[in-house]
TrEMBL record:
GO molecular function annotation: beta-phosphoglucomutase activity; magnesium ion binding; sugar-phosphatase activity
GO CC terms of this entry: cytoplasm
Family: Belongs to the HAD-like hydrolase superfamily. CbbY/CbbZ/Gph/YieH family.
Keyword Cytoplasm: yes
Catalysed conversion reaction: beta-D-glucose 1-phosphate = beta-D-glucose 6-phosphate
Organism in which the protein naturally occurs: Paenibacillus terrae
GO BP term (any one): carbohydrate metabolic process
Protein name per its UniProtKB record: Beta-phosphoglucomutase
Catalytic residue positions: 7, 9
Residues where Mg(2+) binds: 7, 9, 169-170
Site entry (Important for catalytic activity and assists the phosphoryl transfer reaction to Asp8 by balancing charge and orienting the reacting groups), positions: 114, 145
Keywords assigned by UniProt, alphabetized: Carbohydrate metabolism, Cytoplasm, Isomerase, Magnesium, Metal-binding, Phosphoprotein
């Protein structure tokens, strides 16, 4: 085990909840039904793909021009940014800061593989940026999760082989991306949401260097 590559939203901090709330507000203004079960499909995928899925659910896929859709995605992002502007270091999920500290002390590489264009801002608000040897630039990624490209790029940036990496995710699309990259996948959530993961933890509080080393194969 030479590196751990983290997802951000829902793994490092509970911003998955803020994405849910911001999409929920937009869906409500459009009169499109929106619930937590459907929201699972939006985890890990880009803003524009998420909007397309919401519009398809409301049978409105062709109701909006490209400009209209950009405006709707911007509305969601404005609400999302309002929610994340109040983040503080206290919003790092349990177990994550100790794990990052242990990894750094053990000289194990640390990278971020987030689909979010707000990722750098969030890491700064949480005062975690200094832990990361690489924050993959999502704007340079051609294929989003479930494609493995973002995780593979994290490994390249750290100079390690994929087989020596662990990926940690809370999204089904993310687990697929980690496995497609040939890495060991740790899922945060329920086994039914984290199909294909090598191990699943209910919460990040269960994560530690010792625990990862015990399971890594
Ligand atoms: C992922 C989230 O991390 O980032 C998705 O799981 C989100 O829900 C995606 O849509 C893109 O985020 P942003 O901040 O660029 O809209
Ligand atoms: Mg996530």
């Amino acid at each position: 085990m030479k590196a751990v590559i983290f997802d951000l939203d829902g793994v490092i901090t509970d911003t998955a909840e803020y994405h849910f709330q911001a999409w929920g507000s937009l869906a409500a203004t459009l009169g499109i039904p929106f619930d937590r079960e459907f929201n699972e499909q939006l985890k890990g995928i880009s803003r524009s793909e998420s909007l397309d899925k919401i519009l398809a659910r409301g049978d409105r896929s062709s109701a909006y021009s490209a400009d209209d859709k950009q405006e709707l995605a911007a509305q969601k992002n404005t609400e999302y940014q309002r929610l994340i502007s109040a983040l503080t270091p206290a919003d790092v999920l349990p177990g994550i800061r100790p794990l990052l500290t242990e990894l750094r002390e053990a000289r194990i590489g640390i990278a971020l593989a987030s689909a979010s264009k707000n990722a750098a801002f969030i890491l700064d608000r949480l005062e975690l940026t200094h832990y990361f040897g690489s924050v993959v630039d999502v704007t340079a990624i051609r294929h989003g999760k479930p494609d493995p490209e973002i995780f593979l790029t994290g490994a390249v940036n750290l100079g390690v082989q994929p087989a020596d990496c662990i990926g940690i995710e809370d999204a089904q699309a993310g687990i697929q991306a980690i496995k497609g990259a040939g890495m060991f996948a740790v899922g945060v959530g329920t086994p039914s949401q984290m199909q294909g993961a090598d191990i699943v933890v209910a919460t990040t509080a269960e994560l530690s260097l010792r625990m990862l080393e015990a399971h890594f194969i």
